[in-house]
Amino acid sequence: MAELPNYDTVAPAEMDYPEHERTYDLFLAATKWGTIGVIAILVGMLVGLIAGGGFIGGIGTFLLVLVVAWFVAR
């Protein structure tokens, strides 16, 4: 049989909303830059492996996509 909780369910503890918002902002930034990184890798692979750009072309395209994303996403 379930026991009663040993914490106050009527008056819960205070929430630290500024910390919640800061954590959520960091999560959104990590998601945004993670997505941009994956897209940059895929475009670099497209140019380097399929479009015939070679290793240097793929790396250059990867860096170019990151720089463009930096200016667009700010």
For the structure shown, list the relevant keywords:
74 residues; elongated; Aa3-type cytochrome c oxidase subunit IV
What does this molecule look like?
α1 packs antiparallel against α2. The protein has helices at 17-50, 54-73. It has a domain at 32-73. The protein is an all-alpha fold and 74 residues long. The protein has two helices and no strands. The model has no long low-confidence stretch (mean pLDDT 91). This is Aa3-type cytochrome c oxidase subunit IV. It comes from Antarcticirhabdus aurantiaca.
Order of helices and strands: HH
Main β-sheet, in a few words?
none
**Span from first to last CA?**
55 Å
Q: Tell me the structural class.
A: mainly alpha
Q: What value does the average pLDDT take?
A: 91
β-sheet strand percentage: under 5%
* Number of β-strand runs: 0
Count of separate DSSP helical elements: 2
For the CA atoms, what is the radius of gyration? 23 Å
Helicity, as a percent range: over 70%
Q: Shape from CA axes?
A: elongated
**Low-confidence runs of at least 5 consecutive residues:** none
Protein name: Aa3-type cytochrome c oxidase subunit IV
Organism: Antarcticirhabdus aurantiaca
Structure, briefly:
It comes from Antarcticirhabdus aurantiaca. The protein is built from 2 helices and no strands. With 74 residues, it is mainly α.
